[in-house]
Fold this sequence. Notes:
Elements: E1 9-14, H1 17-25, E2 34-37, E3 45-48, H2 50-53, H3 63-69, E4 74-76, H4 80-97, E5 101-105, E6 108-112, H5 122-137, E7 141-146, H6 149-159, E8 164-166, H7 172-176, H8 189-196, H9 203-208, H10 211-218, H11 220-229, E9 245-256, H12 259-279, E10 282-293, E11 298-308, H13 311-325, E12 332-340, E13 343-344, H14 356-372, E14 377-378, E15 398-399
Parallel strand pairs: 2-4, 7-8, 14-15
Antiparallel strand pairs: 1-6, 1-7, 2-3, 5-6, 9-12, 10-11, 10-12, 10-13
Helix pairs in contact: 4-5, 10-11, 12-13
Amino acid sequence: MLSLQQRAIAHLDLDCFFVSVECQQDSSLLGKPLLVGGSSDRAVVSACSYEARRYGIHSAMPMKTALRLCPHAIVRSGDMEAYSNKSREVTEIIADKAPLYEKSSIDEFYIDISGMDKFFGSLKWTTELRKTIMKESGLPISFGLASNKLVSKVATDEAKPNGQLEILFGEEKSFLAPLKIEKIPMVGKETAAQLRRRGVETVKTLSEVPVSLLEAWMGKHGISLWKKANGIDETPVIPYYEQKSISTENTFPVDTIDMEFMHAELVRMTEKIAFELRQQNKLTGCITVKIRYSDFETVTKQMSIPYCCADHILLEKVKELFKKLYDRRLLVRLIGVRFSHLVQGNYQISLFDDSQEMIALYQAIDQIKNRFGWEFLMKGTNVVPPEKKHLSRQKEITPYFKV
Length: 403
């Protein structure tokens, strides 16, 4: 295993990704306060331009609040299909050139270029890659280069907008030291407030707190914070494979042609693996539906979709695929659903047209499922009537809304 000194990790982040794509499609938006998100009073801001940020606007802020802060801001509803296509375009550029890369979200990448300095120079190679991405995609992108993923990510944030920054080996602590504690990844408002109550304002102060004391304050999270504050991160770059997937299938006890029952099963399976996506903080970019008939002939059909993990959006696509696929009208032995082309991300970015209530509903449902199990709360159409129980192994469930 390479030592930290031998490692060279680049973190690349497409600047204001959604906003940049919108500006690429409409150049009149350049240099203006732009908000991407739903247009209703109850919608939230999914992304905003740097010009909008000067008014105190940030992502996840209620759109109504954002427009009070900046009444002349321009609002775009968002085009997840365009964003997904651009993300795939940049991924292909990186995959063609990088020895080992990880797609950590729709607009972020880690690249392990350890050993590259012996041939081209790590900084030169990453700089050339950045230029290629900007030239071929037309989008601004920043990068940080360091000995580990943590420091490279923080360096990228400091290099924005549209810049680059290298942190040499041995300079990790001095680079992090003057930064506010919120600059450390995974330090949210609650953690920051807890640390500030104890007089910890900067990363330097955090790094000087005895690790045993931090553990007493925050448990294992305290140990992790101490390591981050000291620039320690041995997390490897995890190779990205497009075929990585989450799937489920059900072989029926009795072959069936009952469309109502199969529809309910599609709802159940889609809901199950969509919940798994959200648990893992991932989005899917491809859906596959599988049918096995009673004569054992197996057929599948798939479609690429804008990155998403919301039940109601995924279910619509699953039903569309099933309708196209089920054309023999024979008894069915098995059906399955698979989500692939996974990237990191949360459901807020795919719910541009949904209100705060819809986002809150998903959060509340997932909290209940986390506590009692995913089958405890399900959609109304997923409930199998008593007369069809012989077709299913389904447990007792509580329906929450009908699809």
